[in-house]
Specification:
By secondary structure, the protein is of the alpha+beta class. Strands 1, 8, 9, 10, 11, 12, 14, 15, 17, 18, 23 and 34 form a twelve-stranded antiparallel beta sheet that branches. An eight-stranded parallel beta sheet has the order 35-33-32-31-28-27-24-36. It has a six-stranded antiparallel beta sheet with strand order 7-6-13-20-19-16, with no helix packed on it. The protein is globular, with a radius of gyration of 27 Å.
């Protein structure tokens, strides 16, 4: 069945307040699909959909239908937007001015809209005549979930304008400032914005690139540049009035963004949605007096799909939402349950180069023989199940990327590495090599500075401002790993730690090695899988969820958000969802200004204890490119490492390493409560005096586990 309707049929709904608008929109609805749990209705004007959840009795609409919006004045232009199923963002590539037009589909006077009922749902097709851009959206029911899909084959660009992005269901996740509840979005480990928290009012729109911003890799930023938020998960959620929704970007997440929009004087509504990118923006390097964006000439050829889950639990908090995402990962085979053992992660730092007038000089603070001594000393203090990784082992020292064999002569020989591995295995420890195949130093050989590096869409090389660090094309990084792997197989390693891999997904616009983000991600996953096949495990720096099921251990996983003003508080959504299924660590404890507090964070959020140690004095590294190790000499740290390690490898915490978290709660600013699936409850007290909860006293700056 097909029906064609002109835009004016949809624009007669220009009323003064949201409740009247919602009532009019539901006056005539078309039943598009139904099953035991859900019913999907299409508005007769083709501008919105409603989903009735039979279990909870709640009806959700893609039009803003918050019950607390009564009396909220909305200007006509905004009323058109809040009734749109999706919004299309276009630019004129021929003029090259970089201006993006945000087009709510019900706002164009010559919009052509049609629908067709398909299996389990409906296909909606829109064509914006003024811009000569068309797109289709398929909305279907899949069991207890809703799928919103934009097939790439449906996109039409017949004129000067080209598609930049699509905002999918922009007002399905929406609420006024009067509503009870919150948004949850993937900033850091997870962030919450409460609707009644006035701090978000008038805040600018925040776009979170899923899996990170590749152009803002740490090595490319100077010391004054602000780091981009780590966006580890393609997930966002909402609790409004005691009912919950969750969205998971299933296809195209590596080129999607999560958009957080706060209430303001123009529109008193908060809304959260997925933005599907078809063209990236880059600064026009030809213009220096003002900022002008240029957009990709060729589009990103991918199908996008968003899955919306209707939460069963009444008044779900972030822990309930994390459990839903965990169940999703398990049900889809991304993760599996299995036996896990408590471990202590130790990075052994060897060498870094000091820049000289003519030549760089390696400053070695640990040899392979001395690394062997460190592991033996820690074992004698009772530190068991060490998961060690060797950094700075390559010729020239740490940072002489891409990493490759042979070993640096200053750190030792192949025989020394084999001896270290033999000793480690006799102690029950595991040893991996930390290697960076993503970056290349300007003064390193073995790669083409013109052909093997990443080019952005404005035809410039992706590098830092001094042009000392370049990003290698993802397929070239795979070639460097293959060469490394052939040599590494000669050693009884336990794995490879891939630096940078879990922080952002790459791409390359260069003609020689053109690589999409989807192709780069597939290469990353293959490298991890090959490491696991060769050595038993694979590790990644960064916690991006796209590597789940491929990486056994992830480092540099944040335990806070990245400081958006709209955020009410950070929450450990990531940790609640993944604890017991994958091992993860934060930054090394000896880089913290307060180790005792850092250990409490590890206890609260289920981290693997983590340290980075050297044999010699770190003052030797003062003039190298590795100046973060202010204090790492193992003789000064071994007692504290042993103290921290025993808390996790002995006693109640050791038994929890493979147990999932059921619920995380903040009882006060200084007291946390973590409940595990097996009934164990861990209380963490950050205060300077004892605290009490549930009739249990927790000592000052300490933790206590209570087992059923």
């Amino acid at each position: 069945m097909k029906k064609n309707l002109l835009c004016w049929l949809c624009c007669v709904l220009l009323l003064l307040c949201v409740p009247a608008l919602a009532e009019e929109a539901t006056a005539e609805r078309i039943l598009a699909a139904e099953n035991d749990r859900l019913a999907l209705y299409l508005d007769a004007g083709l501008c919105s959909i409603d989903v009735e959840d039979k279990l909870t009795g709640k009806t959700w609409s893609s039009s803003m239908n918050d019950e607390t919006a009564e009396g909220l004045k909305i200007i006509p232009a905004q009323q058109k937007k809040i009734t749109s199923l999706l919004a299309v963002n276009c630019t004129n590539l021929k003029t090259g001015l970089g201006v993006v037009n945000n087009l709510a589909l019900m706002a164009e006077k010559d919009l052509q809209a049609s629908y067709e009922l398909i299996e389990n749902g409906v296909r909606l097709t829109y064509y914006l005549g003024t811009y000569q851009v068309g797109v289709s959206a398929e909305i279907t029911l899949d069991g207890a979930t809703l799928l919103a899909r934009v097939p790439y084959a449906s996109i039409r660009e017949n004129g000067d304008f080209s598609l930049v992005s699509v905002d999918m269901l922009p007002y399905l996740f929406s609420a006024t400032d009067k509503a009870e509840g919150f948004f949850l979005y993937p900033d850091g480990c997870g962030a919450v914005m409460e609707f009644q928290d006035n701090a978000h009012y008038k805040e600018s729109t925040r776009l979170y690139p899923v899996y990170g911003d590749y152009q803002k890799q740490p090595a490319l930023l100077d010391m004054f540049a602000q780091e981009a938020p780590q966006v580890l998960m393609p997930v966002f959620a909402m609790n409004r009035g005691g009912h919950g929704l969750m969205a998971i970007i299933e296809q195209g997440a590596e080129t999607s963004r999560v958009s957080l929009n706060c209430s303001n004087n123009i529109i008193g509504i908060n809304f959260l949605f997925a933005n599907f990118q078809y063209r990236r923006a880059f600064d026009d390097k030809r213009v220096t007096d003002r900022a002008i964006k240029v957009y990709d000439k060729d589009d990103i050829k991918t199908d996008y799909q968003l899955r919306v889950l209707f939460l069963e639990e009444e008044n779900p908090d972030y822990s309930a939402m994390a459990r839903v995402w965990r169940d999703y990962l398990l049900e889809n085979g991304v993760l599996t349950r299995g036996e896990r053992k408590p471990q202590v992660a130790i990075d052994l730092f060897l060498s870094a180069p000091e820049e000289g007038l003519l030549f760089d000089t390696p400053r070695t603070v640990t040899t392979l023989k001395q690394a062997e001594e460190i592991l033996t000393a820690l074992d004698s203090l009772g530190v068991k199940n060490i998961k060690a990784s060797v950094k700075g082992w390559t010729a020239g020292g740490y940072g002489k990327t891409p990493d490759h064999f042979p070993l640096g002569g200053a750190v030792g020989s192949d025989g020394d590495l084999k001896s270290l591995l033999d000793t480690a295995h006799s102690l029950g420890a595991e040893v991996s090599l930390t290697a960076n195949f993503m970056e290349a130093q300007a003064d390193e050989r073995g790669y083409s500075h013109r052909n093997d590096v990443v080019y952005t869409g404005n035809h410039t090389v992706l590098t830092d401002k001094d042009e000392t660090v370049f990003m290698l094309s993802p397929d070239v990084a795979k070639e460097k790993f293959d060469a490394f792997l052939n040599k590494a197989k000669g050693f009884t390693l336990n794995g490879v730690r891939f630096e940078r891999m879990g922080q952002a997904v790459g791409f390359n616009y260069g003609s020689r090695h053109a690589t999409t983000a989807a192709q780069a991600l597939a290469l990353y996953q293959t490298m991890l899988d090959e490491s696991r096949a060769a050595f038993g495990t694979a590790e990644a720096e960064g916690g991006n969820a796209c590597l789940l099921g491929h990486a056994d251990f992830m480092t540099d996983v944040p335990y806070q958000d990245y400081g958006c003003q709209a955020t009410t508080r950070a929450v450990p959504f990531y940790q609640v969802a993944l604890h017991g299924l994958v091992d993860y660590a934060a930054r090394p404890g000896n880089l913290s200004s307060d180790l005792e507090r850092e250990v409490l964070r590890w206890v609260e959020m289920g981290y693997v204890p983590f340290f980075e140690l050297t044999h010699g004095n770190t003052e030797e590294l003062m003039y190298t490119n590795y100046q973060i190790l202010f204090s790492a000499e193992y003789t000064a740290w071994q007692e504290r490492v042993a103290w921290a390690a025993k808390q996790f490898t002995e006693g109640p915490l050791a038994a929890l390493c493979g147990v999932c978290i059921e619920r995380h709660e903040r009882l006060s600013d200084t007291l946390a409560k973590v409940t595990y699936e097996n009934g164990t409850v861990v209380y963490v007290n950050y205060a300077d005096e004892p605290a009490e909860a549930d009739g249990i006293e927790i000592p000052a700056q300490s933790w206590k586990a209570v087992t059923e």
